[in-house]
Write a structure and sequence with these properties.
There is one protein chain. By secondary structure, this protein is mainly β. It is built from 2 helices and 13 strands, in the order E-E-E-E-E-E-E-E-H-H-E-E-E-E-E. The strands form 5 sheets. The protein has a 4-stranded antiparallel beta sheet with strand order 3-4-5-13, with no helix packed on it. Strands 10-11-12 form a 3-stranded antiparallel beta sheet.
Length: 161
Protein backbone atom coordinates (compact mmCIF):
# COMPACT_ATOMS: atom_id res chain seq x y z
CA UNK A 1 0.00 0.00 0.00
CA UNK A 2 1.37 3.39 -0.98
CA UNK A 3 0.46 6.33 1.21
CA UNK A 4 1.86 9.84 1.39
CA UNK A 5 2.78 12.21 4.16
CA UNK A 6 3.59 15.92 4.54
CA UNK A 7 7.17 17.20 4.58
CA UNK A 8 9.06 18.57 7.57
CA UNK A 9 9.66 22.29 8.04
CA UNK A 10 12.90 23.69 9.50
CA UNK A 11 16.10 22.00 10.66
CA UNK A 12 18.00 23.11 13.77
CA UNK A 13 21.75 22.43 14.14
CA UNK A 14 24.23 23.05 16.92
CA UNK A 15 27.55 24.63 15.96
CA UNK A 16 30.63 22.56 15.12
CA UNK A 17 32.23 23.68 18.39
CA UNK A 18 29.23 22.41 20.38
CA UNK A 19 28.91 19.08 18.56
CA UNK A 20 31.22 17.97 15.73
CA UNK A 21 29.49 16.92 12.51
CA UNK A 22 29.00 13.18 12.16
CA UNK A 23 28.20 13.41 8.43
CA UNK A 24 30.12 16.35 6.96
CA UNK A 25 29.30 17.15 3.34
CA UNK A 26 32.92 16.42 2.34
CA UNK A 27 32.38 12.76 3.24
CA UNK A 28 29.87 12.35 0.39
CA UNK A 29 30.14 12.42 -3.40
CA UNK A 30 26.94 13.78 -4.95
CA UNK A 31 26.77 12.32 -8.46
CA UNK A 32 24.06 14.53 -9.96
CA UNK A 33 21.93 11.52 -10.98
CA UNK A 34 20.00 11.19 -7.73
CA UNK A 35 22.68 9.10 -6.02
CA UNK A 36 25.25 9.87 -3.33
CA UNK A 37 28.32 7.84 -2.36
CA UNK A 38 29.38 7.80 1.28
CA UNK A 39 33.18 7.64 1.09
CA UNK A 40 33.40 6.46 4.72
CA UNK A 41 31.24 3.36 4.20
CA UNK A 42 31.37 2.88 0.41
CA UNK A 43 27.56 2.74 0.29
CA UNK A 44 25.64 4.41 -2.52
CA UNK A 45 22.43 6.09 -1.36
CA UNK A 46 19.39 7.39 -3.17
CA UNK A 47 19.65 11.12 -2.52
CA UNK A 48 15.89 11.55 -2.08
CA UNK A 49 13.45 9.67 0.10
CA UNK A 50 11.18 7.45 -1.98
CA UNK A 51 8.45 9.45 -3.69
CA UNK A 52 10.64 12.56 -4.04
CA UNK A 53 12.84 13.48 -6.99
CA UNK A 54 14.72 16.39 -8.55
CA UNK A 55 18.03 17.96 -7.56
CA UNK A 56 16.53 19.38 -4.35
CA UNK A 57 14.16 16.44 -3.76
CA UNK A 58 11.18 18.79 -4.02
CA UNK A 59 9.30 17.07 -6.83
CA UNK A 60 6.60 14.65 -5.69
CA UNK A 61 5.62 13.71 -2.15
CA UNK A 62 7.59 11.56 0.27
CA UNK A 63 5.86 8.18 0.24
CA UNK A 64 5.29 5.87 3.18
CA UNK A 65 5.12 2.08 3.05
CA UNK A 66 4.52 -0.94 5.22
CA UNK A 67 7.73 -2.90 5.81
CA UNK A 68 6.76 -5.59 3.28
CA UNK A 69 5.90 -2.95 0.66
CA UNK A 70 9.19 -1.16 1.37
CA UNK A 71 11.11 -4.37 0.66
CA UNK A 72 9.19 -4.79 -2.61
CA UNK A 73 9.77 -1.15 -3.56
CA UNK A 74 13.53 -1.61 -3.06
CA UNK A 75 13.60 -4.87 -5.03
CA UNK A 76 11.72 -3.33 -7.96
CA UNK A 77 13.57 0.00 -8.08
CA UNK A 78 15.52 0.99 -11.19
CA UNK A 79 16.52 4.38 -9.79
CA UNK A 80 19.39 5.99 -11.76
CA UNK A 81 19.54 2.88 -13.97
CA UNK A 82 20.57 0.46 -11.19
CA UNK A 83 18.65 -2.68 -10.28
CA UNK A 84 20.42 -3.69 -7.06
CA UNK A 85 18.72 -1.29 -4.63
CA UNK A 86 17.74 -2.55 -1.19
CA UNK A 87 16.60 -1.32 2.20
CA UNK A 88 19.60 -0.53 4.40
CA UNK A 89 20.10 -2.47 7.60
CA UNK A 90 19.66 -0.44 10.78
CA UNK A 91 23.43 0.10 11.21
CA UNK A 92 23.77 1.40 7.63
CA UNK A 93 20.76 3.70 8.00
CA UNK A 94 22.11 5.04 11.29
CA UNK A 95 25.41 5.86 9.56
CA UNK A 96 23.82 8.84 7.75
CA UNK A 97 22.37 10.41 10.90
CA UNK A 98 23.75 13.91 11.54
CA UNK A 99 23.98 14.06 15.34
CA UNK A 100 24.42 17.83 15.59
CA UNK A 101 21.06 18.50 13.88
CA UNK A 102 17.44 17.64 14.43
CA UNK A 103 14.17 18.09 12.56
CA UNK A 104 15.63 16.33 10.55
CA UNK A 105 18.80 14.69 11.87
CA UNK A 106 20.53 14.42 8.50
CA UNK A 107 22.87 16.53 6.36
CA UNK A 108 20.37 18.43 4.20
CA UNK A 109 23.10 19.59 1.81
CA UNK A 110 23.58 15.93 0.87
CA UNK A 111 20.05 14.58 1.45
CA UNK A 112 17.76 17.57 0.81
CA UNK A 113 14.13 17.76 1.92
CA UNK A 114 14.34 14.65 4.10
CA UNK A 115 11.22 14.21 6.25
CA UNK A 116 11.76 14.42 10.03
CA UNK A 117 10.22 11.02 10.41
CA UNK A 118 10.69 7.28 10.76
CA UNK A 119 12.54 5.39 8.00
CA UNK A 120 12.42 1.62 7.67
CA UNK A 121 15.52 -0.54 7.79
CA UNK A 122 15.74 -4.09 6.44
CA UNK A 123 16.59 -5.41 9.91
CA UNK A 124 13.94 -7.59 11.55
CA UNK A 125 13.20 -6.28 15.03
CA UNK A 126 12.88 -7.67 18.48
CA UNK A 127 11.97 -11.23 19.28
CA UNK A 128 8.85 -11.23 17.12
CA UNK A 129 8.27 -11.52 13.39
CA UNK A 130 5.79 -8.65 13.75
CA UNK A 131 8.55 -6.01 14.12
CA UNK A 132 11.32 -4.38 12.09
CA UNK A 133 13.96 -1.80 13.06
CA UNK A 134 13.73 1.82 11.99
CA UNK A 135 15.65 5.09 12.45
CA UNK A 136 13.73 8.16 13.53
CA UNK A 137 15.21 11.11 11.63
CA UNK A 138 13.67 13.76 13.87
CA UNK A 139 16.35 13.24 16.52
CA UNK A 140 18.31 10.57 14.65
CA UNK A 141 19.82 8.71 17.54
CA UNK A 142 16.45 7.20 18.36
CA UNK A 143 16.20 3.93 16.54
CA UNK A 144 13.75 1.30 17.60
CA UNK A 145 11.43 -1.24 16.17
CA UNK A 146 7.83 -1.03 15.18
CA UNK A 147 5.09 -3.12 13.71
CA UNK A 148 5.84 -4.12 10.13
CA UNK A 149 2.28 -3.08 9.27
CA UNK A 150 3.08 0.57 10.17
CA UNK A 151 3.65 3.02 7.33
CA UNK A 152 7.10 4.66 7.32
CA UNK A 153 9.44 6.40 4.89
CA UNK A 154 12.10 4.67 2.80
CA UNK A 155 15.59 5.62 1.59
CA UNK A 156 17.24 3.06 -0.68
CA UNK A 157 20.88 2.01 -0.68
CA UNK A 158 23.15 -0.17 -2.78
CA UNK A 159 26.58 -1.57 -2.06
CA UNK A 160 29.55 0.30 -3.50
CA UNK A 161 31.37 -1.11 -6.50
Amino acid sequence: TLLTCAQAAAQTCRTETEVPSTTPAGRFLVHGNGTVTDTATGLIWAQCAEGLSGSACTEGTAAIFTWADALIRARDSTHAGYTDWRLPNVKELSSIVEERCYAPAINLAVFPNTPSSVFWSASPGGSSSYYAWYVYFYYGGASGYGYRSNNNHVRLVRSGQ
